């Protein structure tokens, strides 16, 4: 109760405390709104962007993203690729050190990769490193972890042997799952290495304090190789997931950034905060999946017609206030070497023409007014915006085809459990965000053998064959061509209706300098500074 | 008295057992699981994860494992906040909720009883009507409206108080969340007190006391108050349990790292162990406060005796 007593004294000082502003800060502190409590700080278990933001300030991978979102050397100063594209050799920086002053070694990277693939670790994102030789087998427990294709050539050289050429491998090495952990540290503390006081990290910052659901504080790591260029002394991550509360705290100048907020706020915030509102198209796609296993969605004409009848401009501009962009194909723009992917030929028509064409196709298929009745159920995960999209799409289908459309929502967990476990549906909402900037990350969603993510069970042997070919192709340009051909098939068959390109929404205070918008949504605090 | 307390504590064991059992199975009947995320896991990963957390075992086995572990004080790891055990999470969060809850309770009880008594003494006067209109508004305005409105006025427009967070735990950080949490309860206490006070003032022994010429203050405070407090006390038990175990809404609005939101977050995330942990916590608090209330009853009302 002594705590309570001090509070009484504090109460007596109410007057002065109410007025008393916080003392001038000598330190450069960045108050970073992070819209959610990290579920873990263990790179083997992280799975979402808000965790990556914290982790990439603490740890540095072989490669990292620059402020404008390009891959640049991180803990490695350079790398080479073998002729056939299957062996990557990374040279670590001589002066790369852990926060305890010990050198970052090749052995740390070997240990980290083995730890992720070890089935005992049960790493959530183990599959992202499957391009490494034997990774999948190790992860399935078929071969021991020392068979993984990663080895330390010497203390500062680490070599990755791959299953097949993987041109986006340097991007994979910047992924949160590929971040290194300090071998000695993890062996000493076990899973508790992530706690403040225990954690040793090699990034620009080190973990200072962590109060779940309150704040996570990282302080400048003096042992970081590039510490001279790190301008912030501290970054405090605030994990509140309440959009409205975060905006209020931004307005009260308690937060310097807010990540993710309701698109309905954009207009007001833009008026008030001008270019402090950042809307950046992301590498992610919002789509509706059709269950191709059953009538009438097994009929390509029905899928095409339904897809054409959706007015994407309306969804993006009216429902999302421009926070999303209308799209007609799966792979978002901004992938290196891919450019703008192919779109269906009807994408260039006006919405009215599309609707005419759609009606024609639907008649041909024998559904809608004058044909068999069209009863459609749209499933989506509970969320105000998704509900508004579903309601609008339902209206469009009603007006165009005289369809009877019902809506069915369930919370995120139930929605995706149902879809990944092969549950039958008519139309279901889904979305995909890139793990790395390569079209393969999206196109592989539609492979027939991808039982968990190919929700609609699209099964096109031609498509599968094209992707297989792209995997074996070592020439980057030819590989992109093959993938474009594959995407044309999706455009033709419409197993999914791609609707919108997500944008990342940020509020970034004028006080923060060095912030650059980028499609990969990577914003390392080490590039930032605060204006006094 | 000691016997009474022991008997009540013993009878709490089966109650908690039933609560645990029902919650355990209800939780599992909800579709989806802790690892069905917006970003679904690859099948192999899912298999590894299920194995690690023992979720691949038959449900009855998981139930008995949970029971025997819980009986030993091990409430398991959180499935979602993987760096922590449930005991660690709740242990870290509970002090915040309790401190916030105690302040809110203090505000609610002291303020409510005071205002209720004043209203009762001025029954049907303008003070009474004004207070009761305010109290009705207090009961009906939910805290997810109250919180943001208070923030808008005091944090954004006037810049007097912080808009959120526990900060250093000083008074200025507590004012708004305590008010958001406490005011609706204050209103309830005010209405309860007014009602029972009016009734108490009309009883025979008060009339007698007045006839003897006792000063009004003595009549109200030492005689009427005693009887009037019984209904208030009845409400105090569940109210204290609810306030001290945290409010998901207030904690979320003000970014307080308390235990209240774990119940809601845990349910949404299907964080089975965390939900079980919070359910047990709430059950224990409810039982405990009802017991305290029963003991206080005996002290206030000689007709209620615990021998």
UniProtKB/TrEMBL annotation, chain A:
This is Oligopeptide transport system substrate-binding protein. It is found in: Periplasm. The keyword Membrane does not apply. Residues 70-452 form the Solute-binding protein family domain. Belongs to the bacterial solute-binding protein 5 family. One of its GO terms (biological process) is peptide transport. The keyword Signal applies. GO terms for cellular component: ATP-binding cassette (ABC) transporter complex; outer membrane-bounded periplasmic space. Residues 1-26 form the signal peptide. CDD domains: PBP2_OppA (cd08504).
Automatic annotation (TrEMBL), chain B:
Its main location: membrane. InterPro entries: BPD_transp_1_N (IPR045621), MetI-like (IPR000515), MetI-like_sf (IPR035906). The chain crosses the membrane at residues 12-30, 100-121, 133-161, 173-192, 232-256, 276-300. It comes from the Bacteria. It is a multi-pass membrane protein. Residues 94-297 form the ABC transmembrane type-1 domain. PANTHER family: DIPEPTIDE TRANSPORT SYSTEM PERMEASE PROTEIN DPPB-RELATED (PTHR43163:SF6). Keywords: Cell membrane, Membrane, Transmembrane, Transmembrane helix, Transport. It is found in: Cell membrane. The keyword Electron transport does not apply. Belongs to the binding-protein-dependent transport system permease family. This is Oligopeptide transport system permease protein. NCBIfam families: PRK09471.1 (NF007008). GO terms for biological process: transmembrane transport. GO terms for cellular component: plasma membrane. PROSITE patterns: ABC_TM1.
